[in-house]
Amino acid sequence: MLTVRGLHKRFDRHEVIKGVDLDVGEGEVVVIIGPSGSGKSTFIRCLNSLEEPSAGTVVIGGGESIKAGDRKALARLREDVGMVFQDYTLFPHLSVMANMCLAPVKLKRATQAEAQATALALLDRVGLRHKADGYPSELSGGQQQRVAIVRALAMKPKLLLFDEPTSALDPETVGDVLNVMKGLAAQGMTMIVVTHEMGFAREVADRVVFFDGGRIVEMGPPSQIFSAPQQARTREFLQSVLH
Fold first, then answer.
1. Exposed, middle or buried by CB within 10 Å (0-12, 13-18, 19+), for 76?
2. SS3 label, residue 28
3. E-strand spans in 157-196?
4. pLDDT score of 44 more than 60
């Protein structure tokens, strides 16, 4: 589903991503962990060109490699790759239903009636159908994030990216959002998740990737990464966050 080769990202003279290679299979859940400032969020923002890579290639679903400045290819890429941010990014002046329907209708993926039917079905899945006519300001943080997730799903993406989706939430609402993500994983959605939720990584990930200093230091199944990490830096990080 995803092939990344030799990915670099520089901001002026500061190199944030330093030659990353990664393959993600269809239906796989890859969880990226690591310290703040390690490049995790910049990396996944490069996957749908929210940040333009300085070098390297990103290929989604066996399609074309996206070249800088190719707006048509970039638009196609973003139709196939959904993204959920830590700050929800809902349009505050639009109702929940309007937030859900905007992209599918604008991009001619669905008629208004089809988009509304899909939106209601998705809101049902996350227990928020009764909020369809409400506005983001009337929702809790956890509810807004659940709406953001199903809004991304309304575009029927091949790949769903999550950039620390629970970091802005109150502890009481984190579980609701993680449960939605667990359900998506169980249904076979291909997902890359940047998170500090180690319990989620241990329970749901097919592979855990430990990022530090703009590089992949170690990756493997959760059983290996959490119980028998091979790299000293991985062990040091996990000892600090798990204890």
1. middle
2. coil
3. 159-163, 190-194
4. yes
pLDDT score, position 64: 64
Tokens 């992949």 map to which residue? Answer: 216
Cβ atoms within 10 Å of 238's Cβ, excluding its own: 17
- Does 69 score more than 60 pLDDT? no
Instruction: Tell me how far apart the alpha carbons of residues 168 and 160 are, in angstroms, rounded to a whole number.
Output: 19
- Token output for 134: 């409400």
First vs last Cα of the chain: how many Å apart? 35
Tens of pLDDT, residues 105-146: 988 888 999 999 999 999 999 999 999 999 999 999 999 999
Contact criterion met (CB below 8 Å) for 115 and 100 = yes
What integer pLDDT is reported at residue 169 of this predicted model? Answer: 86
* 203/200 Cα distance (integer angstroms): 5
Helices (H), 189-231: 198-204, 222-227
Instruction: For residues 32 and 99, give the distance between their C-alpha atoms in angstroms, rounded to a whole number.
Output: 28
CA 241 and chain centroid, separation = 22
CB atoms within 10 A of CB 106: 9
CB atoms closer than 10 angstroms to residue 24? 21
Share of the chain above pLDDT 70, in %: 94
- Phi and psi torsions of 65, nearest 5°: -80, 135
CB atoms within 10 A of CB 13: 5
3-state secondary structure of 33: strand
